[in-house]
Amino acid sequence: MSDVAEACYQYRVRGQVQGVAFRAGTRERAVALGLRGWVENRADGSVSVVACGSEETLEALSEWLWTGPEAARVDSVEAESVADPGGSEFTIV
């Protein structure tokens, strides 16, 4: 059992982030970091991410979200603390 406190954040990523494998790349990075949560495309063209883990791993994910996959162009990443949605994996919705 880990003594590291978990936090959960919802990120909204805007820019050229759909149709460029952003969700798959986000899932791959989140799984590598040991995070749990989900990623989905939004109707407004943004990508929404909910991730739970240590502050250190969430910071690493946030840094990756600013870059994304090679074909992406990220204009902004907004983050807010959210309640733990539960679950034990990181999925693409």
UniProtKB/TrEMBL annotation:
<dbReference type="InterPro" id="IPR001792">
    <property type="entry name" value="Acylphosphatase-like_dom"/>
</dbReference>
<dbReference type="InterPro" id="IPR036046">
    <property type="entry name" value="Acylphosphatase-like_dom_sf"/>
</dbReference>
<feature type="domain" description="Acylphosphatase-like">
    <location>
        <begin position="8"/>
        <end position="93"/>
    </location>
</feature>
<dbReference type="InterPro" id="IPR020456">
    <property type="entry name" value="Acylphosphatase"/>
</dbReference>
<dbReference type="GO" id="GO:0003998">
    <property type="term" value="F:acylphosphatase activity"/>
</dbReference>
<protein>
    <recommendedName>
        <fullName>acylphosphatase</fullName>
        <ecNumber>3.6.1.7</ecNumber>
    </recommendedName>
</protein>
<dbReference type="InterPro" id="IPR017968">
    <property type="entry name" value="Acylphosphatase_CS"/>
</dbReference>
<comment type="similarity">
    <text>Belongs to the acylphosphatase family.</text>
</comment>
<feature type="active site">
    <location>
        <position position="41"/>
    </location>
</feature>
<dbReference type="Pfam" id="PF00708">
    <property type="entry name" value="Acylphosphatase"/>
</dbReference>
<feature type="active site">
    <location>
        <position position="23"/>
    </location>
</feature>
<keyword id="KW-0378">Hydrolase</keyword>
